[in-house]
Amino acid sequence: MFCPQPFNRIEIYENGDVFNCCPPFLNNYSIGNIFNNSFDDIWNGEKVRILRHNILKNDYSLCSDLCNRKCNNDFNENEYKEIVNNYPEEISVSSDNTCNVRCKICRDNNFHTEYNKEKLEEEIENIWLPIFKDVRLLRFGCSGEPFCSYKESLIIKRAAEKYPNIKFHFHTNGILGNEKRLKELNVYDRIDTITLSLHSASRWTYNKIVRGGNYSKVMKNIKLYSKMKENNLINHFRMIFVVYSENYKEMPKFVKLAKENNATAEFWALRLVENTKVGTNFEKYSLININHKQHNDLVKLLKKPIFQEDNVILYPELKKLI
Fold it and tell me: Which of 125, 145, 186, 272 could form a disulfide with 99 if both were Cys (CB 3.0 to 4.6 A apart)?
């Protein structure tokens, strides 16, 4: 087992903190901050070298049990070293929590950040863009909606202009990322992956979960992404469904919806988001707990043949239930 992520990948968050993986998977082990340190000092600094050294020794003690490691079983000791000369090939930008909806499983309040446009232009030019110089894949949308965020839309547009070989991965709620918007950002023909969070397979359930959403626009854009995938304008189209007590019965229907639209159906377990109604009542909503009254219903559902189909991905918390 070998995880290559500390050697070629980072995630950067709104406060500038840098991680080699999703923070909960690394027990929030940050390797530096782009606003406080030079990126050269971060990318081959002491903290990341400790992490790389451990991984090279098959020591994952800095990692969390939550991790669903993207492992490379063909580990070549000559390929991976503690000091990495090139900048990361893959960067996930989570620079803004701004979103146009309030998904029940994510947030109760609207987040919208205002920016000093002149200072933001300087920040993008002097801090963000230089970090992207060796990037193959640039990802947006882990903390907010990239097509809603002024900051992230500007970073996307500037990166697309400066680095014509970069491909993009967008994690979106599917409302604003239409063909016109993709072309405005100069990324329509440069998308590697679209990841669309839907969490439902019907208008009724969608409206219950996605407060402020627009089901019709999402369905229209799903058809757009499906067509783009069919025409090789997108390499991967992923549809995400976070499983909890109010939507789990729609899981089989969601698999069919994804398959009809050339997408994978990916099921995640509900995760604790504090300071939300769902987070405060986590035990009421999460079906992973064996004591939940609907836990056995979920287990029976997961054992149905439809969840063995090629386009279905069950993340570890759910897969272990069967």
Answer: 145
